[in-house]
Amino acid sequence: MVASRLKKICLGTCLAALLLSGCDPQRIAELEEGVATEADVRAKFGEPEKIWDAPGGGRTLEYNRQPAGTQNYMITIGPDGKMSALRQVLTPENFAKVQPGMMMEDVRKMLGKPMKITPFALKKEVDYDWRYRRDQQQLIFTVTFDNDYRVLRTGSVPDPQTDGGTNR
């Protein structure tokens, strides 16, 4: 009975995440760089997961689609209050920028909130995982941090919730 209830909760959460991320392309199309304001962004995307300071006095609003989704969005609002950039950040190009020695906060600012954080106390390491898509494959990108939250290594594997990385 408990397993059945957990399964229903999980399915409901996954469905909500899919519906939310399914609306993203429409929301993005309705926002124009240099024209849309922070109020316009918030009207389309809601409250951000986190707000980061951006270079030059702007702010970056983080919109997370983890754990069930495969995107994270960073939307930069310039000092003039207008949207200056909207990026889906879970990409192989961004993953390649994650280098050994980087601090966890810098990785977090680059990729957004991970879908899962797994501590390994005996190894004195912590894994941060992000779900993403490349071509038709669903993958997990992992960053392993040491005790000081500096990057040790990175890697990608097929998402175990899919059949070899493709949707079931």
Automatic annotation (TrEMBL):
Question: Is-annotated flag, keyword Signal?
Answer: yes
This protein is called Outer membrane protein assembly factor BamE
Q: Known Gene3D superfamilies for this protein?
A: 3.30.1450.10
- Which terms are listed as keywords in the entry? Membrane, Signal
All residue ranges annotated as the Outer membrane protein assembly factor BamE domain in the record? 89-152
Origin organism of this chain?
Answer: Rhodoferax koreensis
Q: Can the keyword Magnesium be found in this entry's annotation?
A: no
State one Pfam family annotation: BamE
For this record, the Gene Ontology CC terms, alphabetical, are:
outer membrane
